Structure prediction request, 319 residues.
Amino acid sequence: MPNAISRLVAQRIVAFALGYPGLGPVRISAELGRQAWGFLKRDVMYELDGKIAIVTGAGGKNGIGRGIATRLASEGAAVVVCDLNDSGTPDWGGLSAVVDEINASGGRAIGLTGSVADSGDVAGLVKGTISEFGRIDILVNNAGAPAGPDRVAVVDLAEHDWDLVIGVNLKGTFLMSQAVGRHMIQRGDGGKIINMSSVSGKKGAARFAAYCSSKFGVIGFTQSLALELAEHRINVNAICPSLIETERVYDMAAVLKPDDGTTTEEWRDAMIERSNATNPLGRIGQAKDVAAVAAFLASSQSDYLTGLAINVAGGSFMG
Prediction:
């Protein structure tokens, strides 16, 4: 790329490749994307060049998983993005779209599908990653059960809804960490495991019993695993976001709205407005806020940190 190219131009090239709006119907070559990406990486915060990362639950358009996957890729990591399936929506291509945006921007990514709550699928995800890239350095356990029928009082909570939430959020974290942890121990070169908990893993809430239980469990699991893997130089930490503006806010609004006269869209907007109004930093959290913490925890700059549960909540929760 000519030395005269401005950083702004490079930013616009990479931003288009990552799917940001307002840039017009421009087509760029893969080579131009790689060059622009390299230009911007002069100022990256955490050098992850040569690292291999798995990010589960990464197929959503506005989700935390996509934010983490693209952030790790921008730091130089090759990323395996995983989700339950590759189905998208009318305006989003799902898992394939995340893979395409990373590769188009000069990063390296593949997509793998499977359930983190199924040990056979987990074995396939790990095997597929090692087959493609040779090893795993970073695991981000981000997959989460959809917000839905579980958001009811305990006396009304169906057993299968409880099992789904615990199965994905907690058992899935266990199975993925176990499989990847075994690989990291065998390699003998350390590693990073990052588990997605929540501020709801530190304080209970009515109608959130299954979710809170799973996220409390993730924190306890993180602390235990951190102690077990410390001798192998494998850091294990958890991230605890507050409400983040993703597709899940709509799903939550659908089951939490006060009455049939309130539309899901209205209650979603009300939830966001309430978060903006009450958060000490004046806004609801974004996927990029969580991704920034994940990038730090995935880097060598966090080598002396393990067993932590870090709030990403704008000061709305300090426990």
